[in-house]
Amino acid sequence: PPMPSVTYGSSGRALSPQAVSEAHDLFDTLLTSTRAFRGAKEPPVPSVGLYLRAEIARRVPTLGGGEEDARRLRLAILATCLKLECCISGTHSMDLVALEPFGEYVSLPGLDCTFPGGYSGLPDRMLSALPEGTVLLNKAVRTIWWRGSFREEGDKARDFPVQVECEDGDAFLADHVIVTVPLGFLKERHQDFFQPPLPERKAEAIRRLGFGTNNKIFLEFEQPFWEPQQQLLEVVWEDESPLEEPSTDLEANWFKKLIGFVVLQPPEQHGHVLCGFIAGKESEYMETLSDAEVLGTMTRVLRTLTGNPRLPAPRSVLRSRWHSAPYTRGSYSYVAVGSSGDDIDVLAQPLPEDPRDPRPLQLLFAGEATHRTFYSTTHGALLSGWREAERLNQL
Q: Where is the Amine oxidase domain (predicted)?
């Protein structure tokens, strides 16, 4: 269900709910219409962004009832809608997201679930049911050797086709390995991470599929400046339009990619905390800044949006850095222009490719980038893990 929200404009005022609603309704209608191209052999344009902007341009004369100021405002709100879609798709621009397979994405129904004990509470509960020592942490892997013949020291009776070599020098032998590293890591490291290298067909799928960054910026306040019922603070830069090229000056304008803030609920548990969302190159640039720089910029942005130059600064800031993290190199995948759902299927296929191989399923691949029905990144990761476990059960 939609959250109770307020939309702030860069002129320092809350925008008309009617103008916001009309622009959102139009964007939702256009986004729904992209589903008509699923399976199309020749979609009208390659990308979701090109399609949406062409449709917006076609409707410009009727936006805002023909009044120039109202039209500009609705275009600015539509620009924010496109930024939100970048966050959802994990991309810098919707121009990078392929139109034809976009209709495969289905939002998972239902509300978010918060686990007791915070984010670490869930794995702690899962681990408690397993024998001690089953899960080893902080064992970074340097190389996965497969199609080999490896033996435990002193054991000549049995050999293993796979050896997982860790950066600390430890090694683990296995018949089967399920690889769940993010696509961003594979894009950067697959050529030396697997020995022998992956077949060219799988390497091509890794190159073609898209992988982008979506980060969160948490701001903690002594007291809320928002109304108690508000759960979403949307941000609109009133001089922007989806029909104009955005600025490429990241240093001066990175914060304009921010789509707004969700109010963390309940405040009795979290305090007065806003969670902002920002995607793309601007999000990656944000990772290079210090906490003080991010906090200072967010303070200036919020003072501009609320029209209150004395708005107290947040007392603390916390942000994710998915692009900088060496084992992720971004947040999640999307089907890029030039790729298709077939690349996801290829990425998901186990190795060796020949099912008659005497030592099958040496390498299995799971993770959100290997699941074709995009309910959500978490859901795809879960289902793909079950899928690969079932492959081994069947074997």
A: 94-392
In the 8-state DSSP scheme, what is residue 213? -
Give the span between the Cα atoms of 212 and 105, in whole angstroms: 16
The CA–CA distances, whole Å, from 170 to 165, 250, 279 equal: 6, 42, 37
Pairing mode of beta strands 363-365, 260-263: unpaired
Q: What is the band of 182 on the pLDDT scale with cuts at 50, 70, 90? A: very high
State both tokens at 241. Answer: 């339009």
Task: List the structure tokens of 3.
Answer: 């959250």
Q: List, in sequence order, the alpha helices (H) in the chain.
A: 17-33, 48-59, 68-89, 121-128, 183-193, 200-208, 250-253, 267-270, 280-287, 291-306, 341-348, 377-394
Q: 205 near 343, Cβ under 8 Å?
A: yes
Structure token pair of residue 39:
């399976």
Q: Would you place residue 269 in the very low, low, confident or very high pLDDT band (cuts 50, 70, 90)?
A: confident
Q: What is the tens place of the pLDDT at every residue in 291-332?
A: 999 999 999 999 999 999 999 999 999 999 999 999 999 999
DSSP code string of 248-278:
--HHHHGGGG--EEEEPS-HHHH-EEEEEEE
Q: What Cα–Cα distance (Å) separates residue 192 from each residue in 176, 186, 212?
A: 19, 10, 22
Closest to 35 in 3D by CA, of 97, 105, 93, 91:
105
What's the chain's length in residues? 395
d(CA 182, CA 189): 11
Nearest to 86 by CA among 375, 331, 302: 331
